[in-house]
Amino acid sequence: MNISPVEVSKSLIELLCSDCRTVVLTGAGISAESGVPTFRGKDGLWNKFDPRELATFSAFMANPKLVWEWYLFRRDLINKVEPNPGHFTLAEMGKALNRLRIVTQNVDNLHQRAGSVDVIELHGNIARNKCADCGAPVSEQEIDPDQIPLCQCGGRIRPDVVWFGEMLPFEAIETAQRESSQCELFFSIGTSAEVYPAADLPRIAKRAGAYLVEINPDPTEVTHIADEVFAAPSGEVLPELWRAAMNEQRAKRTDQHID
Ligand code: BJW
Ligand code: ZN
Question: What is the pTM of this model?
Answer without folding.
Answer: 0.96
